[in-house]
UniProtKB/TrEMBL annotation:
Entries under InterPro entries matching the protein: Glyoxalase_8
The species this protein was found in: Vreelandella venusta
Taxonomic lineage from the root: Bacteria, Pseudomonadati, Pseudomonadota, Gammaproteobacteria, Oceanospirillales
Source organism, top-level taxon: Bacteria
One family name in Pfam for this protein: Glyoxalase_8
Protein known as: Glyoxalase-related protein domain-containing protein
Chain ranges of the Glyoxalase-related protein domain: 2-138
Amino acid sequence: MTLQTLAEAKAQAKSLRQALVAKGTQISHAQSLELIAQQNGVRDWNTLYARLSGAEPTPFNIHDEVRGQYLGQNFSGRIVAISKVGKSYRLSIQLDQPIDTVQFASFSNMRRRIRGVIDQEGRSPQKTSDGTPQLIVEPLVRRR
């Protein structure tokens, strides 16, 4: 059976979770949604949600591995939160390694997580003093 609606997907996730609990395996509702998405041939719940809701696909999803620059510093990490803001996206990225966001020798500000708003191309509308975007994000693996 192919899913046709979000309600069907959510009902399947609920049934899966209840069946696993009956067999002694606890999973969260979010985990059951991710499993239903994978069973339906997509990489994650966000992708299945977009497909079933008719929304246009997003260039980024939660848990995507990304790289880029934040205030001129190179980084790599994983998206831990994402929300749509008009035509842009507000991201929170957990970094693989902390970066220093200050360029003064006598002061530093190490960040393990960064937040920002980006457009469809992965660039923030806010610019640094030299005119480059404050945040540039690109996926480590390009989707088809």
